[in-house]
Design a protein that fits this description.
With about 400 residues, this protein is α+β, with helices and mostly antiparallel strands. It folds into four domains: about 90 residues, Rossmann fold (3-Layer(aba) Sandwich), CATH 3.40.50.20; about 140 residues, 2-Layer Sandwich (D-amino Acid Aminotransferase, Chain A, domain 1); about 70 residues, ATP-grasp fold, A domain (Dna Ligase, domain 1, 2-Layer Sandwich); about 80 residues, D-amino Acid Aminotransferase, Chain A, domain 1. It contains 13 helices and 19 strands. The strands form four sheets. It has an eight-stranded antiparallel β-sheet with strand order 13-12-9-10-11-14-18-16, with helices on both faces. A hairpin with a 7-residue loop joins strand 10 and strand 11. Helix 4 runs antiparallel to helix 5 and helix 5 packs across helix 6. The protein is globular and about 60 Å long.
């Protein structure tokens, strides 16, 4: 039996962990909540061993792994399983993010408290359980505010609130949101925050024992309020104040006690001051890590994560310096998707790397409220930022989404 690396519930970005770790010559063990998940998330046939257990309970994962032979590492491969996985990895003696840090990066209220304690710029906030507590916060800061769950993802139930009537309606709605992906429970504590206007970015970071080994900045294109759905990513983005991004990334990661591996840190330039929206102790999703970073810099973050946790040398040297973008496709009205015209022509463009249409003709569609409402994406490159923007315009002039 070869050395085995284990992943808890690969999905979304986590599927790439399975693929890239397998390519390094290790055997793969997946720990899943349901044995049908590998087929559902697209990695059936890419692993060597599977254990089915209740990943929502850390003791269940530990009991499944404690006697497994030849295991050399364990990583979470979905956001929701991160704290439980890190607890088990610590107990088994593997290098990992600490359990406390994992709880902080998964629970926005805990992270906010640590940012406040450590003087890390972030929005004014309050953790609330009731509508009255939320109203009390608005009496202090005024409207607009943002209401969000403390432990969800993908912009689920993140809403801009303009007045008390909207707050009452949306608070009732968010209280009905009790369960998210894979059966994980949504906490009944919520965040109310001051609304931060300004351009949003994400900082893609790789740490080794607290030292920054890679840092680049992604510009986020987002829908207009009241929802905050990402409609595109540009990597890298030319900025004159990159050092400011480096400083806030360092302060934020130290506040949460995260010292190793990839981080995806979301920030907003709020009237000239960077403020942290959230820190995710994982590679960026939305094809940023899997496609944009390799296209722009020739770097494999997934493999470097394995290297880091196995105490091997990193390989984060850039082999190129190009620009890349992920442009999402959305419906602009409620209706039935008839077709998306121009896809074949776009695929033929020499600067286009990937086109993925995820909605079928006849699907019921609507303008986006969260990331699940995307119809597909187009990934493309440019040798300069200006060339990338011209390529984006070219694509937008070709594609046509027909809805009735």
């Amino acid at each position: 039996m070869q050395n085995i690396f284990a992943f808890v519930e690969p999905s979304f970005y986590g599927v790439k962990y399975v693929e890239h770790t397998k390519s390094l010559g290790y055997e793969i063990l997946v720990i899943v909540n349901d044995k049908s998940n590998p087929e559902y998330y697209g990695y059936e046939g890419k692993y060597d061993y599977l254990i089915e257990c209740d990943i929502k309970k850390k003791e269940s994962i530990y009991d499944a792994l404690k006697n497994f032979k030849n295991l050399i590492g364990l990583l979470p491969a979905t956001d929701y399983a991160t704290p439980n996985t890190c607890w088990v990895a610590e107990k088994l003696g593997f290098k990992t993010m600490s359990y406390d840090s994992a709880l902080a990066e998964r629970n926005k209220d805990i992270a906010r408290d640590l940012f406040y304690k450590n003087n890390v710029p972030s929005p004014k906030y309050k953790t609330v359980k009731t509508y009255k507590e939320a109203v009390d916060f608005t009496n202090m800061v005024g409207f607009p505010i943002v209401l969000k769950p403390t432990n969800a993802a993908s912009s689920q139930f993140v809403t801009l609130i303009q007045n008390k009537e909207e707050l009452h309606k949306e608070f009732n709605n968010i209280q009905e949101f009790n369960e998210t992906y894979m059966g994980f429970k949504v906490r009944n504590e919520y965040l109310v925050e001051e609304y931060m206007s300004g351009q949003e970015y994400s900082i893609e970071v790789f740490l080794e024992d607290g030292c920054t080994k890679f840092l680049e900045i992604t510009k986020k294109l987002k829908t207009n309020p009241p929802f905050f759905v990402e409609k595109g990513h540009i990597l890298p983005i030319p900025l004159s104040n990159k050092e400011d991004f480096m400083n806030i990334a360092e302060k934020g990661s130290k506040a949460l006690g995260i010292n190793n591996g990839p981080l995806h840190i979301e920030v907003i330039d709020n009237e000239g001051q960077l403020k942290i929206v959230e820190i995710n102790g994982r590679p960026a999703g939305d094809e940023i890590t899997s496609k944009l970073i390799p296209l722009s810099f020739g770097i494999n973050i997934f493999q470097n994560t394995i290297f880091n946790y196995l105490e091997k040398d990193l390989n984060l040297t850039k082999s190129k310096n190009d620009y890349s973008m992920n442009l999402y496709i959305f419906a602009d009205k409620v209706g039935t998707l008839n077709n998306i015209v121009g896809v074949d022509k776009i695929k033929e463009l020499d600067f286009v790397s990937d086109v993925n249409i995820t909605s079928n003709t006849g699907s019921k569609v609507h303008p986006p409220k969260n990331s699940d409402d995307r119809l597909g994406y187009i990934i493309f490159t440019g040798q300069t930022y200006e060339e990338l923007m011209k390529n984006k315009e070219n694509i937008e002039n070709i594609i046509e989404i027909n809805i009735t």
